[in-house]
Amino acid sequence: MIQNKYHANEKGYYGDFGGAYIPEMLYSNVEYLRTNYLRIIENPEFQLEFNQLLKDYVGRPSPLYFARRLSETYGASIFLKREDLNHTGAHKINNTIGQILMARQMGKTRIIAETGAGQHGVATATVAALMNLECVVYMGALDVQRQAPNVARMKMLGATVVPVHSGNKTLKDATNEAIRDWIQNPENTFYIIGSVVGPHPYPDMVSRFQSVISEEIKIQLLEKTGRENPDKIIACVGGGSNAAGAFYHFLDNENVELIAVEAEGLGINTHQTAATTAIGKTGIIHGSKTLLMQTSDGQIEEPYSISAGLDYPGIGPLHAHLFVTGRAKFYAATDHEALVAAKLLTRLEGIIPALESAHAFAVLPKVRLKQNEIVVINLSGRGDKDMETYLKSNF
Amino acid sequence: MNLLQNILQNISKPLLSVYFTAGFPELNSTSVILHALEKSGVDMVEIGLPFSDPLADGVVIQQSSQKALANGMNLQKYLQQLAEIRPLSKLPFILMGYYNPVYQFGMENLLRECSKIGIDALIIPDLPPQEYEEKYKSLFEQYNISFVFLITPQTPTERMHKIDHLSSTFIYAVSSAATTGNALEIDEKKLAYFERLKSVGLKHPIIIGFGIDGKQNFDLATKYAAGAIIGSAYIKIISQSTNIEQDTENFIRGIRN
Q1: Does the active-site annotation cover B57?
Q2: Domains of chain B (ranges, CATH numbers)
């Protein structure tokens, strides 16, 4: 088992960040998970079923694609990890497969989830259909509007989508409501959290399920280039699950530069941003101590991003730790920069990225790239759900 | 001995505790409400420090918190208001709030202020017992402020005893698996839980909260516990009230009689 400075300790801390700041109502469920998740995950039968589903159902391994024209544009060897080609269109399903198997193992009959862009909601509704379990997805009312195609998919998959009207009606508020549901249904319900956030063991558990991304990158890069370690890996961060997966097997190799990209929204100083590391301070959100956008009085600030999946006022505790230790470099990309990057990728490579993933591409002009350097970008999702936004921005 | 410890050592009738959100419905309602509650004969008050994202609360307390924040309530003003009211009241004051605003203010800063003002206890639902024990227990003892823990129907008996051991005044028993403000439905399972609370043999008195909305639930809960807490039901009353003093008196009399 990997145990070192970039992984959670037994209490779920990455350095100063993590832990389980939960009301007593959640204690029994979280404690059961904490004391059993590793045993369940490491069980050979679980591993067999998990890997088989990832292969035959999700379509893994996802390709590692050499983006020739993008590489020529930026003067480096740029590879795209094609999580957008997974079943349901994003990396989210790696995690929901793992968690639904865990829910089944624990005898739970009802599944709840929060969702921002709807990708995690769709991935959860999908595996719930597969396992024939009841599924309720909480989604901010604003996101229900701006990600309508995903709402329709969840409904067709048999999930109940509950619009949440509190706060800014986005991902934070959906998460609050999912936690309240869990408080009220402690016996039969499993909460499938979609990112590396929440109380321990969720950040570690979700990281492990997503770590298949970097596991494959190593193998594929070795085949294609003769080296298993890239010079740089770039991923977008909302809560941070795709970045956690893309970074996971490179965390201990300090020669690999980790680059995380947050959503800057309209600009760092506009109060219309989701760039947590730029303006956040240590605090407690959704059961975890982490960096958090908040007022001086400790009220959580409403975030803003054009991308519903990055529109979150915190980041996972792993990422907070990577930020303060300097292990990862954090950048931010504005709405506009993300749109420009999405258009460029579309025209150069014929790939329409999700708005979230477009943020990762948006830092290519800002990052110093050397000739012959190998860069991997995690293309975490596809852009079908964002067509309305793209069309509105005059493509 | 603080006011809360004093009350708990001389229990002659079921204790009635009332929760309300500071700064709601108006920023300066706090003193009016406290005065009305004391006059109506409640035994202690839990004064909510509003938070933007109250995870354990149902929609009534969520909305009162949002309104209070919009009215300009924050921890500084909260302490200022209670400091002004304290000399006029004999009720034990309990601060109920979430961890993040307290964390930003600094726990020791807060305890020092509470001690100075005369706030007897803190309830912070998302600060777990282990964290309390490791980081803050000695500070609470130093300032003679009580930390009140929650237990729920899912809390194992062994853990109840551990929480009892860490407690210094009373234990807050959550009536059911619920957020605040969901009407308590009495069934066999719930009665079995209340029986367990009674028979488990905790050293500290138990006060039951969540879903207690009137006389019937209050009387039932206090058959099994030293007292009960009313929150959302009271907030509903004052949110529509044009005469807080009168409406409070009527509401509390309806429970006490």
Answers
A1: yes
A2: 15-250 (3.20.20.70)
